C-alpha cells in the first residue's frame, strides 16, 4: 500500500469519527481515537485504532452504522474496551462457490480429519480439524443448503481418508440424501428408521466403551496414542434431521455421551436440523457441539438457539454463519449430486450386510418417534 492510500483511509476514518461524534473534548478541539496502523491486502483493508482513555466503547459499537455509511456495507468492526479493528472488504462474498476438489485437497493438508467449511470474504477457505473441533451442528430452513454442505463435508472426508482410517455411520431421517454414500467403502451403514438408527448408535456406544477401556488399560489420553496393534479408525456419526429422533431417550443419551466423551476416543458427530428446537438443544448435547453452522434460519430466536447471530438475515443458499472459536460468515462449496457421485465412484464397493449389534433393543414404533414432528 502506498503512503498516499494509507493517508486517504486514515482521513476517511477521522471523518467517520467526526460525523459519529466518536471523540473526547470539544467540537473545536476533538481528541479522536488513535489510528495505530492500516494494512491492506488484495481483499481488504484493516485499520486498527485505540480509544483515548475516558471514551465510552459503546460510542463505537452503538454507532456501527456510521462505519457502514462511510465505508459501505462490506465492513466488520471488532473490538472491546479500547482496541478496535475495522476491516473493509474490497468485494462482497461470492454467491456461488463451485466445489473443486483440487483446490480443496490443498487446504486439507495437515488436517487429521478435515472439514472444509467454506470461503470467507477475503477469498480464503476456512477449515476445521474434527480432532480439535469434534462435533458439528448444522441448522437451516428448507432450501438453505444444509444437505449440500453435508454432502460436501462427507465427500471431502471420504476423499481424504482411507477406509481403514475413517468409518462413517449415517442416519438419514428424511430418506433423501445419504443413499449416495451407501456403497462407499468407508460407510458402515446408512439407516433411516429410528429403530435402525438406535441399533447403529448401540454399536457406537459399544465402541465408546471399548475405546475407553483400552485408553485406560494403556494409560493414554487419546486413542491415537494406543499401541499400533490396537489403533482404531476415526468414527464419524452423521445424522440428517436428528430432531426427528428427539423422543427416543436411548438415542439422545448415546448422542449426548458421544458429544461429551467422543473427542479423545476418536468418535465424532455431525448433526443437522431444519428447525432448531431449544428443547433438544437445551440438553448437555448442545454444550458439546463445538461448532455451529447456521444457514438461513426463520427468525432471531432460531439464530439464538443455534448460536449463530443474524443467520435469519442471510439471503443466499449456501451462505452461513459459523460459530467455532469465533464467528465467521462463509459461502459453502456447491457440490451437486452428480459431481459427488463422480468423486465417490472410486470408493464404491459391493456391500455385505450391515454390522449387527446384539444388545437388547427396547420396542419403539416409528409413530413414537415421528408423530410429533412440527
Ligand atoms: N453452497 C451452495 N451454493 C449455491 N447454491 C446452493 C448451495 N447449497 C445449496 N444451494 C442451492 O439451494 C438448493 C437447496 O439446497 P439443499 O438441498 O442443500 O437445501 P436444504 O437446506 O438441505 O433443504 P431441505 O431441508 O429441504 O433438504 C440447491 O438445490 C441449490 O440450488
Automatic annotation (TrEMBL):
This is DNA translocase FtsK. The keyword Nucleotide-binding applies. SUPFAM superfamilies: P-loop containing nucleoside triphosphate hydrolases. The keyword Transmembrane does not apply. InterPro entries: FtsK/SpoIIIE/SftA, FtsK_dom, P-loop_NTPase. It comes from the Bacteria. Residues 123-304 form the FtsK domain. PROSITE patterns: FTSK. Keywords: ATP-binding, Nucleotide-binding. ATP binds at residues 140-147.
